[in-house]
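Colleagues,

For the teaching module next term, I've prepared a clean inverse folding example: a structure given as tokens, and then the sequence designed for it. I'd like students to try predicting residues themselves before seeing the answer, so please don't circulate the second half yet.
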């Protein structure tokens, strides 16, 4: 399992490392922490590709290639969310959930949202520290406070969900995403071209 006291520093430390060292990939292992770290790297990669996709000083081909990279990273991100859920559900398998209430969001989805909030906090912190535009810095400092509260609340809810699962009060199911847009057999814009 993972606690919020482990999750939040894992996300923050990974971002500090990746923005310094700029790795091309982070591969998951079999353990939960490496799955979470690899899933976080997908969001890190998506964030940076999304920034690039908004540029107007590059050829259209660059934007098209960037958008295709976003699709690949998003598919990997969703696959890893499912793997996190599978890992957690395997660890919680023996818990009695006969009288438990179903939680609509999975723990893996909550880990993903915490990851995205870590990225928002990181980048809003950069803007809050700017000296070239004090208005942006002040507005960003206010937003940073809100983002930190949101992540604190969400990570507390995640920990409570895992604790509730272990004690039989709440449970979550694995929900498959079945992203069709990356599969040429399921995306009509791709398979209709073959006909």
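(Answer key — instructors only)
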């Amino acid at each position: 399992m993972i606690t919020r006291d482990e999750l939040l520093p894992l996300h923050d430390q990974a971002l500090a490392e990746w923005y310094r060292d700029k790795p091309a990939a982070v591969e998951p292992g079999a353990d939960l922490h490496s799955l979470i770290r690899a899933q976080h790297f997908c969001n890190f990669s998506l964030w940076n590709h999304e920034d690039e996709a908004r540029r107007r000083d590059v050829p259209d081909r660059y934007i098209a290639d960037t958008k295709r990279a976003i699709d690949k990273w998003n598919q990997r991100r969703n696959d890893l969310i499912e793997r996190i859920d599978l890992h957690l559900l395997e660890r919680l398998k023996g818990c009695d959930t006969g009288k438990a209430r179903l939680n609509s969001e999975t723990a893996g989805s909550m880990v993903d949202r915490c990851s995205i909030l870590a990225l928002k906090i990181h980048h809003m912190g950069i803007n809050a520290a700017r000296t070239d535009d004090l208005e942006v810095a002040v507005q960003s400092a206010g937003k940073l406070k809100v983002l930190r509260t949101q992540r604190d609340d969400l990570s507390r809810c995640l920990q409570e969900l895992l604790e509730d699962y272990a004690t039989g009060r709440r449970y979550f199911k694995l929900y498959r995403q079945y992203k069709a847009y990356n599969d040429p057999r399921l995306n009509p814009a791709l398979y209709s071209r073959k006909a």
